[in-house]
Amino acid sequence: SCRTRLPLGGAAGAMRGGARLALALAVVAASGSRARGWLFGGGTAAADSEPELPADPALAASSVRGVPVRDEPRYTGLRFTCDGGSRELSVAAVNDDYCDCDDGSDEPGTAACSGRAGTTFFCANEQSVGRSIPASQVNDGICDCCDGSDESAASCSNRCVEEGKAIRAALAKENSERAAGLAKKQEYIAAAAASSSSSNEEAELEKILADIQQ
């Protein structure tokens, strides 16, 4: 069976440490501008009880291993073009575990072109968040994608439901903290307004007393 990385904690702990952090940051960024500026800017801070994971239909799984559906047309014709259009291959050369193209684009579902700049494998990770991993992590006996799609010759359990729940929980916590921050901001605004009003009243009283004394 397929090995998994040493857990880092939580349902998403089987992911590589650096990738796990990058994924968390990507999810928070994808949650929208509400996550930023609550203290010094506008925006809202609604605490969602069940946050939605960012979803892009163009990043769904395709019929070509390692390729998102948005890029599928490039791989499903009779001929495949790579290296900026300078090389043309039979579509049968795609994912044949031999690196024909200098840019490595003919092997999106294998590790044959690993080490070349920009060669990645796309994990759809349905019910979690889709992401790309380095081609060198494909078929290396380690389950990197929560849907296990990176390991064709090994058995990876699908962890996407659990990972998705963990990400939703993190987003819910972030939303709750943002709501608390906005409430505190309103407190500061109210306190500042009250202080300003009190200062104005004191200034007016001092003016009246000065007029009386004259």
Structure description:
It is a single chain. The chain has 214 residues and is mainly alpha-helical. A two-stranded antiparallel ribbon has the order 1-2. The protein has a two-stranded antiparallel sheet with strand order 3-4. The longest helix has 54 residues.
Give a quick set of tags describing it.
3 helices, 214 residues, single chain, elongated
Quick take:
With 214 residues, the chain is mostly helical.
Write the SSE topology.
Elements: H1 17-30, H2 72-75, E1 79-82, E2 87-90, E3 120-123, E4 131-134, H3 160-213
Antiparallel strand pairs: 1-2, 3-4
Question: Alpha-carbon distance between the termini?
Answer: 96 Å
Low-confidence segments, ≥5 residues, pLDDT <50? 5-15, 30-48
Please state the structural category: mainly alpha
What helical percentage do the residues reach? 25-40%
| Count of alpha/pi helices | 3
The counted number of beta strands is 4
Widest sheet: strand ordering:
1-2
Order of helices and strands: HHEEEEH
> Kindly state the mean pLDDT as a whole number?
78
Strand composition percent: 5-15%
How would a crystallographer describe the biggest sheet?
A: 2 strands, antiparallel
| Basic shape | elongated
Structural Rg: 27 Å
